[in-house]
Amino acid sequence: MNTPLIIVGAGHAGGRAALTLREEGYSGRLILIGDEPHLPYERPPLSKGLLQGSTDLAGYSLCDSDRLTELGIEHIAGNPVTQLQPEQHRLQLADGQWLPYAGLLLATGGRARRLPQEQANVLYLRTHDEALALRSALKPGARLVVVGGGFIGLEVAATARGLGCEVTVLEAGPRLAGRVLPPAISQALLDLHRQQGVEVRLNVALESIQADAVLLMDGQRVPCDLVVVGIGMQPNIELATAAGLEVGQGIRVDAHLRTSAPDIYAAGDVCEFRLDGVYQRQETWRNAEAQGRHAALNLLGRELAYDALPGFWSDQYDWGLQTVGVMTSTVASRELPGGGLLLFYLDTALRLQGACGWAPGNSVAKDIKLCERLISAGIPLNTASLADPELSLKHLLRG
Questions:
Q1: DSSP secondary structure letter of residue 47
Q2: Which of the residue ranges 107-121, 182-196, 321-335 has the most confident prediction, judged by mean pLDDT?
Q3: What pTM was estimated for this model as a whole?
Q4: Residue 396 burial by Cβ neighbours in a 10 Å radius (0-12, 13-18, 19+)
Q5: Which domains, and CATH codes, for the chain?
């Protein structure tokens, strides 16, 4: 029997890599190993469509079991990898079985960062099963406290308001999504949530969680029936660390997504790669999709440098947020119809490096797509032209 290619992690990145390998003509043995019992799926619907009841797992799975069988992809669930031996090119499963590999992709993702205190009314949102547990608790009139004003917390808050819950968001920092958004967009998010009836408290510290309330360090008591904690993700690097691979805040890779072991690659949320010379991880749909595909190609020997632009989106009520590229310091902005805003980030040569858009519905998507083309074009731009809402971005793209 031929030595297989193995993918550890059957989430979005791992699933996309497996499908890409078959699409690219790899006909050898292919094994996909996942901790969850489910088929590979995308995570954005967990905080939106699934909580709302408008979609189910089949609606956001990358494929069904018949398709995996048809493609000859062996899916191992409920039997996780417990040990990795790079020098011997093999790994061990929980049942003790050893599997050799010809090439390996680590797409182990992460898990919700948890509070030290565990109790029944505290829920998290990272997996399909966690989303189902939360959906059953979001009843009309339920008093929900969301700990964390990042995107997961805010999307849960928006969905819960739509389901008739009373919602309070607690954020330790001075603004919402402060790590990734410019102040103007953070303020727009804050205004929108408050307009929708969410109580948002900034600069607060948690003391403890009780059965019917959250206690803050300043002595305030926030009554609640349910607490959702959205304070980030803990990357699953333990397997790589124990195997002696280079790690930082994730599994470190080179320009080809190759780890410090020559026949092992990493992709998705757990992958720490260089962007503008700085190691970072990207916990986004776009990154999982692009790196899953790219790692698959390099497992086949393509030796392609990874240079995909980062980007993400978030739906908040009937508004949409989208970004593309690298956001360092804003140098120009333009107002969009309906009260939206488009921010531009340029380098010292006035070439577009990144953009961030906020507008009703999905109306900003076209502008962000044009910004992506402007970034790729690398042409110098005039800041006054970027700020002029009467001058189309397509016109700037034509030079």
A1: G
A2: 182-196
A3: 0.95
A4: buried
A5: 5-111+233-299 (3.50.50.60), 121-229 (3.50.50.60), 318-397 (3.30.390.30)
